[in-house]
Amino acid sequence: MKNYNRMPENFLWGGATAANQYEGGWNEGGKGLSIADILTGGSVNKERRLTPPEPLPEEFYPNHEATDFYHCWKEDIALFAEMGFKIYRFSISWSRIFPKGDEETPNEEGLKFYDDVIDELRKYGIEPLVTISHYENPLHLSLEYGGWKNRKLIDFYLRFARVLFERYKGKVKYWLTFNEINMLTQPFGAVFCAGMLDSEDVCLQSRYQAMHHQLVASALAVSMAHKIDNENKLGCMLAYHNGYAYTCHPEDVFYAQRFGQIHNSIAGDVHVRGYYPGFAARFFEENEIELEIEPEDAGILKNGTVDFVSISYYSSNCVSVVKEGELTAANGGENIKNPYLETSAWGWQIDAVGLRYVLNQIYDRYQIPIMIVENGLGAVDELTEDGKIHDEYRIEYMRKHIEQMKEAIHDGVELVGYTCWGCTDLVSASTGELKKRYGLIYVDKNDDGTGNFARIRKDSFYWYKRVIDSCGEKL
Predict the structure, then answer these.
(1) Contact 315, 397 (CB under 8 A)
(2) Residues 132-146: pLDDT tens digits?
(3) Which pLDDT tens digit goes with each residue over 159-218?
(4) Full DSSP string of 295-320
């Protein structure tokens, strides 16, 4: 008889990073410029700025060095193994493989770097989970083609994906086609997700057209990967927007439902079911969105559905028709403050029970395996005089979320993996700061450029090791 009080023994515990926030080596190994390489540092009170067509000498670009995985990969992977990782999610920088994005021939030096990373992971028995495109489109594709609003990017992406599928056949089993593809429902996604630099491209028309092209590219990549190696498992990745109705007024309740449909289910349904949901037609009509859809797209989407769903989940927020109430920060979406929740130092509301709610919602809708591939707490960590970081607040955050994961599994959700975000410190995507730390491993690098990149185990490092060793029993 199944023991519902225990996590599955084959559960995939691990951590997650992204090349543009962690890797560094921005102009080494034949790498070309990406969107991230022209994005300045920022803070809560200072927006990050784009400086195309190249970086400016007087500006600070935290992604250029990030926290230097490019030179420290062997040390970092050894630390992941020490924690007991079963899986490690990372992205492959498109502009490290195709510096401009539209070349015919890949950069062998870039491929060799990832050869070494993947082989080192496999040496320790850590399963690679590779995100093909994670917020760093090659800059040339933006300047020359206008980013993902241009259908030509589908072919460039597929060339990149084919190189990866063929190069790492038998070494990489789990793949994610695009990171947080549904962020294109937000203005944030125009640059980060789609590499669209024109200020006019934050409009709904451009963003949803770009998302359609990415959904077609994803479906074609899924079909390609399955043909190259039938052991491949392809997933979509959604930034899950959990918006509660701010009041019990029926209009607020319906608005919350529609909020979730638009921000989560349009992209999710196409990925998993292979077609746009019924409510999308009305949404497009009412917002004067006219997608350019080719006759063959319907078949492509139907035949390229994913094998699993993956999500990022950090917080929840409230939504309302009247939009009254105190505002707080949110990872995309609307942001009316929930009076029943605590907030992080960056204003994100902490809602562990919301994770259980979300997991049940996704599984009820799709009935395929789910991975949580981003979850964590951004905070200011203080290094003590004896060189330690006592981050009980991060442990408490993760403990509560893992408890709710266990409850969701007991509910019947097929949850197969959890990779906490920023298993080492890295650059925050939302603010461009290094002081907003997520890692279980401290990296000595600061927003003023100081630091020697030394790695230090935080208290959360040792706690997570116990969690993995006990398969979630010792929290």
Answers:
(1) no
(2) 999 999 999 999 999
(3) 999 999 999 999 999 999 999 999 999 999 999 999 999 999 999 999 999 999 999 999
(4) TTHHHHHHH---SEEEEE----EEE-
Residue 276 has pLDDT above 70, yes or no: yes
Phi and psi (nearest 5°) for 238? -115, 135
Read off the DSSP letter of residue 348: P
Q: Where are the alpha helices (DSSP H) in 98-167?
A: 108-123, 139-145, 152-167
Q: What is the mean pLDDT of residues 391-402?
A: 98
Helix (H), strand (E) at residue 216: helix 204-228
For the record, the structure tokens of 224 come out as 């390609």
Q: List the chain domain ranges.
A: 12-242+351-469
Active site residues: 180, 374
**Which of these, 473, 472, 235, lies nearest to 362 by C-alpha position?**
235
Q: Which fold has domain 12-242+351-469?
A: TIM Barrel (3.20.20)
* Closest by CA position to 300, among listed 226, 178, 216, 212: 216
pLDDT tier, 42 (very low <50, low <70, confident <90, very high otherwise): confident
